[in-house]
């Protein structure tokens, strides 16, 4: 090989390595940004879903406390939300959501209670069916934040 080709080949090899390094850096940066965006979107979806469940379950529990289940269609939205949790949530969160759903059903079929039962709600854990669910959600979302 002629000695004049060595510097030219070295320059070409250096340019190729530099271009590949630049490409790899750009790809890795874009990939990590895309992953971070997907994680933020997933967490936001879960936050909205769990908030929707808490709102619906609270409304139904209050209704079940004072009324009989006159229209089973009242529960349809809650069942739909629980099934969304089944798609996107962690198993422990789903388990708590199903427990809350069962408790609401049991409350509808239990004798109606009067408003005086709410007087000391702080000490009556059966009057706060969403406490354990909220705790599990907080733990799950804290893990998703990392």
General description of the model:
The structure is a single chain. The protein is mainly alpha-helical and 146 residues long. The protein has one domain (41-145). 75% of the residues lie in helices and 0% in strands. It contains four helices and no strands. The chain has helices at residues 5-66, 76-88, 91-109, 131-145. The chain is rod-shaped. It starts with a helix and ends with a helix. The model has no long low-confidence stretch (mean pLDDT 85).
Question: In short, what is this structure?
Answer:
With 146 residues, the protein is mainly alpha-helical. The chain has one domain.
Number of strands: 0
Number of helices: 4
Rounded average pLDDT: 85
Oligomer: single chain
Stretches with pLDDT under 50, minimum 5 residues: none
Label the overall shape. rod-shaped
Helical content class: over 70%
Largest sheet: none
- State the separation between the terminal residues, measured CA to CA: 56 Å
Tell me the domain tally. Answer: 1
Estimated radius of gyration: 28 Å
The secondary structure category is: mainly alpha
What is the ordering of alpha helices and beta strands? HHHH
Portion of residues in beta strands equals under 5%
Note the main attributes of this structure.
mainly alpha, rod-shaped, single chain
Topology of this protein?
Elements: H1 5-66, H2 76-88, H3 91-109, H4 131-145
Helix pairs in contact: 1-2, 1-3, 1-4, 2-3, 3-4
